[in-house]
Amino acid sequence: MQNYCGGVKCEALLREGLDLLQTFERETVPRLYARNPHELMRTHEVLDILTVAEMVLHACLLRTSSSVPLCFERSDYPEKDPAADRVHITIYQEDGQVKSRRVPLDFFGDLKEEYEKKNQEYIREESSHGTI
Known about the structure:
Strand order of the largest sheet: 1-2
Order of helices and strands: EHHEEEHH
Structural class: alpha+beta
Number of strands: 4
Oligomer: single chain
Number of helices: 4
Strand content: 15-25%
Distance between the termini: 38 Å
């Protein structure tokens, strides 16, 4: 991943990384096997890592600017934090395809207020232990 999605990213390398992952999925994944439960667990871990790597590469392709607060740099999009990219980009898989959408930063409302509203039991428990 560091070769294709390192500190400074660009579309060409991100797409090359996706192509490499697709090659792994086409050529290597069908040959995976496990002789025991431990190897089966490790095989599933490898499959999970491939999925996460694919999602990270897609997410990086979707952010078409650099961002100081996100510590995210694209050499092909050097503009820093333009208004159009001040959004949350959500990604998910559906039917084997990566889907995405952009939602405004205030989509969830005031984060502190919403957190406290939905986590009163946790907050009370932590404060009774003196950790908050």
